[in-house]
Write a structure and sequence with these properties.
A 4-stranded antiparallel beta sheet has the order 1-2-6-5, with no helix packed on it. Strands 4-3-7-8 form a 4-stranded antiparallel beta sheet, with no helix packed on it. β3 and β4 form a beta hairpin. It has 2 domains: 49 residues; 98 residues, Immunoglobulin-like (Sandwich). The radius of gyration is 29 Å and the shape is elongated. It has 1 helix and 8 strands, in the order αββββββββ. It is 32% helix and 31% strand. With 150 residues, it is of the alpha+beta class. The model has no long low-confidence stretch (mean pLDDT 85). It starts with a helix and ends with a strand.
Length: 150
């Protein structure tokens, strides 16, 4: 008779151990999920604060306007955070081809590319043929497209 009580006690203790380990595992996984969501929300908040607009007139001459076989466009920082006025800030695609020969310079008296400031972006594109073209700029997750004609 005493052996039945001991067996029940052993099963009860085993059940408590299993329940405690499951609860511990769930708690640690929920904590890791919460941390991952927090990190992602910071990344998204940074992307939301980064916003740009191409302000060049697509009807004006953007190709070879200043010589050197460049596509020259003006880009305004319309977001709430300052951005670096460097070629590495931009991902540039010209007619679907990724371009790395890019130069960036601040326009006017700007000392940095803050909100409302404009940069001149030059994409070296030798031998661009006559016709319609498409320039796509990506800054963080913000995408801007300019269609122009040569």
């Amino acid at each position: 008779m005493a052996s039945g009580g001991v067996a029940e006690m052993v099963l009860f203790i085993a059940a408590l151990l299993v329940a405690a380990s499951v609860a511990g595992t769930l708690t640690s996984e929920v904590t890791r999920l919460g941390d991952a969501i927090s990190e992602r929300s910071l990344d998204v908040a940074g992307d939301v604060r980064a916003d740009t607009e191409i302000i060049s007139d697509p009807g004006a001459e953007v190709y070879n306007a200043s010589g050197g076989e460049n596509v020259t466009v003006y880009v305004r920082n319309t977001g709430s955070s300052a951005l670096r006025a460097e070629p590495s800030t931009f991902d540039v695609l010209l007619d679907g081809t990724y371009r790395t020969n890019v130069s960036v310079s601040l326009v006017g008296d700007a000392t940095g590319w803050g909100q409302g400031e404009v940069v001149e972006l030059r994409v070296h594109a030798p031998g661009l043929e006559t016709g319609d073209h498409r320039l796509k700029l990506v800054v963080r997750s913000d995408e801007e497209v300019l269609r122009f004609r040569v």
